[in-house]
Amino acid sequence: MENFSLILAIVVVTALAFDFTNGFHDTANAMATTISTGAMKPKAAVAMSAVLNLVGAFLSVEVANTISKGLVNEDGIQPEVIFAALVGAILWNLLTWLVGLPSSSSHALMGGLIGATIASAGAGAVHGDVLVTKVLIPAIAAPLVAGLAAMLASRLTYKLGRNSNGEAAKKGYRTGQIASAGLVSLAHGTNDAQKTMGIITLALVAGGAVAPDSDPPTWVILSAGLAIALGTYLGGWRIIRTMGKGLTDLQPQQGFAAQTSAATVILASSHLGFSLSTTHSVSGSVMGAGLGRKGGVVRWSTATRMFVAWGLTLPAAALVAAIAEYVTSFGTWGTAFVAVFLVASSAAIWVVSRRQVIDHTNVNDTNVTEEPVDVVTTAITAVTPPPTGTVEEPGTEPARTATV
């Protein structure tokens, strides 16, 4: 560690700060549906998720190796480049958290790394084949696969449980939700915590602190796991509200189906080394589960805003990172200026967020703006009319009403 310079220390600290924002930004992925259906109390849910995120960080290093060895060419990458990449990722995470949009922390990090690398070493330093096969294709496929699986699982669950006792079935599904939420948290640790491990390892290689092609050192795995666990425990309540109440209204059966489908997709991608967005997977499964219940609809206005944020994540983070890399190229004063700008911008976003506080005490408030009935919603409700007067319970047939 004799080569552990000041700039390298700054990069490591900034990477852990990104990991922290990743934790509270993505808490909704594991716990939004569990909290919204009442299966767990909010504080208990985020505490369980934090512990399992930490455990998951130790289960694999395949995704970390994709980032540290596969996405960009290690030769010629300096620690300042990685610092600039992290600046772009952190600011995008904070902005989307402020407006309550479940965008991808993973893609923010990928975009930041790509933008800073191109600004420093040119487009040839980015491995396009890895970008396409292990980042872009999974980004499109994951929400579709998870959504379809969740929709089919929800319909099957309602079909199998139509003759079961209502309250007993609901209690059973809530218990199943807790287990599936734990599985999502574990999967999140195996995927998202590793991305920070990969970034830190790439920085250590660039700074000469470890040999090229090295796996993440143990202290990197531990620190990344702790940082994402702490962020998870504090809870990204704004995004939890959007995921749990803003996209659709879920019952325990749907929550169980959504979380199980998402966890399966995430764990499979982690095993294959895909830098998958857990946000895309869980959001897709929530929407699929919403459409899996008769009368269930997705609030497409919220979903559209989310899709736009997904599309902007890579280029926006890349642009900010490229600008940051340009400024850091002027030397020590440039790096210091970018660091001050990052701290000041983060503080400003925090101050703005205090104007409307959302925390564990009001995350389940039902005053989420309802979406006006549009063409898509009308079409769905025409095919599967919702029950009138009462909410459909497990084991009960929805009331049939005549339609005009």
Provide a descriptive summary of the structure in words.
With 404 residues, the chain is mainly alpha-helical. It has one domain. The protein is 72% helix and 0% strand. The protein is built from 14 helices and no strands. Helix 2 packs across helix 7 (166-206) and helix 6 (128-160) packs antiparallel against helix 10. The chain starts with 5 loop residues before the first helix and ends in a 21-residue tail after the last helix.
Keywords:
14 helices, 404 residues, mainly alpha
Short synopsis of the structure:
It comes from Streptomyces flaveus. With 404 residues, the protein is an all-alpha fold.
List the helices and strands and how they pair.
Elements: H1 6-36, H2 42-56, H3 62-71, H4 79-98, H5 105-121, H6 128-160, H7 166-206, H8 218-234, H9 237-246, H10 252-272, H11 278-292, H12 300-328, H13 332-353, H14 375-383
Helix pairs in contact: 1-2, 1-4, 1-7, 1-8, 1-9, 1-11, 2-7, 2-8, 3-7, 4-5, 4-12, 4-13, 5-12, 6-10, 6-11, 7-8, 7-10, 10-11
Subcellular location: Membrane
Family: Belongs to the inorganic phosphate transporter (PiT) (TC 2.A.20) family.
Membrane topology: Multi-pass membrane protein
